[in-house]
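Section 3.1: Structural characterization of target chains.
Under the original work plan, the team committed to producing a structural model for every single-chain target entering the pipeline before any wet-lab resources were allocated. The record below documents one such target. The sequence was received from the expression subgroup and is listed exactly as submitted; it comprises 59 residues.
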Amino acid sequence: MDVTDTGPPTSPVTHAGNGITGMRERSAGYGGTVPAGPLPGGGWGVHTRLVFGGPAASA
């Protein structure tokens, strides 16, 4: 799954949060990955890859 945001920020970031870190931790439980970061032309991108039948599937 891919999510992209090409618009400018609407307000300054006031806290670090746990969004991407939390997504990476949950994805890792299924053998997946979540690369995320700024896009070359501006904006931000997140890609999620889950492995069905991964470690959490047998838990």
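The helical segments are 19-28.
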